[in-house]
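Let's study a protein:

___
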Amino acid sequence: MSALAAAPPWAASADDTTRLRRAFGSFATGVTVVTAGGASPRGMTANSFTSVSLDPALVLFCVGREAAMYRSLAESGSFAVSVLAAGQEDVARYFADRSRPAGVRQFDAVDWLPGHSTDAPLIAGAAAHFECAKWRTYDGGDHVVFLGRVLALDEAPEREPLVFHQGRFRQFADRTPEV
């Protein structure tokens, strides 16, 4: 096959935001709740989380410039990321709902614990937690990319992660090898 082959007939312009969103959704992601502490703690659901580096230990996630969480993170020197476990869809939906209460009251609806290295809330029952110092921020169009240096972490390897794919929450299916 030639490298100069014509574009597939189904190709669309990136200006078609409906098709772009659907195409982005074909990439399965984990689901997290990012939190900031301080006088008015805040949380938000994010699936734009990934590891970046082991040395130094870095993670990143993206936040919309118009999101209330952006202002909280811009003012904070630290944050936490709770990687949600399978079965925590209600937590993901709750922190994605813009009508939830502001400040510490938004955490009344979920089980949480205080971070050991930051003052950011950690979601109880999560598959993993990362407490981070804000390291760098970068322009990402209508979003800001936040990089954090991991200060502390914990994990529960027995917990399956919550997965998001094509606009729906999913779970892993065990596959037995064919003989």
Q: What stands out?
A: The first helix runs from residue 17 to 24. The mean pLDDT is 87. The CA atoms of residues 135 and 148 lie 5 Å apart.
